[in-house]
Specification:
Elements: H1 5-12, H2 22-38, H3 55-66, H4 71-90, H5 98-126, H6 128-146, H7 172-175, H8 177-202, H9 211-238, E1 244-252, H10 271-285, E2 290-294, E3 300-305, H11 313-323, E4 329-341, E5 352-354, E6 358-369, E7 374-377, E8 415-416, E9 423-428, H12 435-443, E10 448-453, H13 462-478, E11 481-486, E12 492-494, E13 500-503, E14 510-518, H14 524-528, H15 532-555
Parallel strand pairs: 1-2, 2-4, 3-4, 9-10, 10-11
Antiparallel strand pairs: 1-14, 4-6, 5-6, 6-7, 8-9, 11-12, 12-13
Helix pairs in contact: 1-8, 2-3, 2-4, 3-4, 4-5, 5-6, 5-15, 6-8, 6-15, 8-9, 12-13
Length: 563
């Protein structure tokens, strides 16, 4: 990245006063507004705003640093921008629990400030050239961490921002969604450099820019925008749906998770009636060609012990119904329990203990019927709701189901249906936000992504709409069709280009049926996994080591020169 003499002069020029309070505040507000405006689920063309959404932050940081503001002051305004962006975009988390929603917004903004702080330290000790180059590295390294640690919350991973305009990012089949994060930062930096250098040259005493320099300031950001979009359009125009076909049915029972679904609700619908509603909707929409039915997350609402699963009356009722439809498979969500006995050594790290049960785990699970009943245990758990270390259990957010310290599994289970080519990835709710995670299903042979979810606790907010749009990125990354069954909506189908081909309404009982393609080919991203995130983490560690060494050396007193 080229830094002109004017830019260097602007960076190092002394000034007597710091900017007025209102200017950095307005820049923070503008940055938060632009990032919110470009984020799903606003109209797709507005995603272009994300390509300049970080320019206010970069201007804010540059302005305050040039005027000699303290690191603490720069951090405060940076945090204000991040806090407002999190609030504007994910305020709906508070619909479940106000305190939990506030905690999520405040904490995530604080975590996001860490890569910005690392960038500022690098810039301070090594100058603007390496400093600005380090910013995408630190940010993507943070996003990779945020995909894998126990407080994982990748909802605002920058690459997700292009979900509404996924026709611009068909190259995610090579880079994954972190490639979108890199693209966003590169364009924002180039736009900022152009703005900064032009402004520096326009000041009294500034060196005028030559015609070549002006062309470079305009062309570099323009090319950085248009070339990836052009590549994406080229890939999209040549891509054809691949694989054998099968008819799939997704059911949306629309059972209010607050008032109807669970015991204690003001309009509680009995578990038998809930099952009847699911069976009725399914039976009314089956055809002789239907090969698979998807029911939503926790459709079987009672807790089922896995060891005695087949003895439950509702399971027997399901098996009897399936016996009348040879060749039909069902995947449904449920809450299951696995017991380990009284020996703690045989239990998992997340196991609980009760005198009458011994050690046991509770799972947000999926099960495949008919057959013996093959379970999949949700493995990307919502922090503060399902994935809760014992020392954080007091902060559990109640979303209306089984919550707190759930178990999980390491491997990605793929369900083999009666139709040989139909191999389904059972993806439960929040798991569909993780690109490298869903990849593992395709690596294990999945030809269809089956998402089962219950988004009703988000109410009619951007939350459930963003969740749907993020699934389109998983389709592009893996080139797999997606069938999505959501309790209250939105259910439907997504093709291998990330196009939503069918969708139901919100908060209505509905069924959607479609013929899906069962692709067996592996994309570059599926074959090689996440490369960009780990590479940035290695670079980030090296940069931090260099910054730490430089800081120590600069603090050492200079030795007096010998006479």
């Amino acid at each position: 990245m080229t830094v002109t003499n004017n830019a260097t002069r602007a960076t190092t020029a002394p000034a007597a006063t710091t900017p007025a309070f209102w200017l950095p505040t307005m820049l923070a507000l503008l940055g938060a507004f632009l990032l919110w405006l470009g984020w799903p689920v606003h109209p797709a063309p507005l995603a272009a705003v994300l390509l300049v959404g970080w320019v206010p932050y970069l201007t804010l940081e540059h302005l305050l640093t040039r005027r000699g503001a303290s690191g603490w002051k720069v951090w405060r305004y940076s945090y204000l921008l991040l806090l407002l962006w999190n609030l504007f975009t994910t305020y709906w988390v508070s619909y479940s629990t106000l305190g939990g929603g506030i905690t999520a917004v405040v904490a995530n903004a604080a975590l996001m400030s860490l890569p910005l702080t690392a960038f500022r330290l690098t810039k301070k000790h090594f100058g603007p050239r390496l400093g600005y180059a380090s910013l995408p590295v630190f940010w993507i390294a943070f996003e990779q961490l945020h995909l894998h640690w126990f407080l994982t919350w990748p909802w605002l991973t920058l690459g997700n921002g292009f979900a509404q305009a996924n026709q611009w990012v068909q190259w995610y089949e090579y880079t994954g969604f972190l490639g979108g994060s890199l693209w966003m930062w590169v364009v924002n930096l180039l736009v900022f450099f152009a703005f900064r250098d032009y402004r520096a040259a326009s000041r009294p005493g500034g060196l005028p820019l030559s015609r070549v320099q002006l062309q470079r300031l305009v062309l570099l950001p323009l090319l950085a925008v248009l070339l990836p979009i052009g590549l994406s359009k080229f890939i999209e125009s040549r891509y054809q749906e691949k694989g054998e076909t099968a008819e799939v049915l997704v059911v949306q029972p629309n059972i209010d998770p607050y008032n109807e679904k669970f015991e204690g609700g003001s309009r509680f619908v009995s578990y038998d009636e809930q099952l009847t509603r699911l069976l009725t909707l399914t039976e009314q929409n089956l055809t002789p060609q239907t090969k698979l039915v998807l029911w939503p997350e926790t459709s079987l609402d009672e807790t089922y012990f896995e060891a005695t699963f087949n003895s439950y009356p509702k399971v027997q009722r399901l098996r009897e119904w399936l016996s009348r439809h040879p060749g039909l498979d069902l995947i449904t969500g449920l809450t299951s329990v696995q017991q380990y006995g009284p020996d703690k050594a045989k239990a998992s790290p997340t196991a609980r203990f009760r005198e009458d049960l011994g050690y046991y785990d509770v799972f947000n699970a999926a099960v495949h019927l008919p057959g013996p009943g093959q379970f999949y245990h949700k493995s990307r758990l919502v922090p503060g709701v399902e994935g809760v270390p014992p020392w954080l259990s007091m902060f559990v957010i109640d979303l209306g189901g089984t919550a707190g310290g759930l178990g999980s599994q390491e491997e990605r289970t793929v369900y083999q249906m009666a139709t040989p080519a139909l191999k389904v990835a059972p993806v439960i709710c929040y798991e569909s936000v993780y690109g490298d995670f869903v990849n593992q299903y395709a690596q294990n042979g999945a030809t269809l992504i089956g998402i089962i979810t219950n988004d009703g606790w988000w109410s009619d907010s951007p939350g459930h709409l963003q969740h749907l749009q993020y699934a389109t990125l998983r389709a592009i990354e893996t080139r797999r069709d997606v069938a999505r069954s959501a309790n209250t909506g939105i259910s439907g189908f997504i093709n291998q280009k990330g196009e939503i081909t069918q969708q139901t309404g919100w908060w209505v009982p509905a069924v959607s049926r479609a013929t899906v393609h069962l692709n067996t080919e592996l994309t570059f991203y599926v074959q090689h996994g996440e490369l960009l995130g780990p590479a940035c983490q290695v670079l980030a560690v090296l940069l931090l080591v260099l910054v730490a060494v430089r800081a120590v050396l600069q603090r050492q007193p200079k030795q007096p020169e010998m006479a």
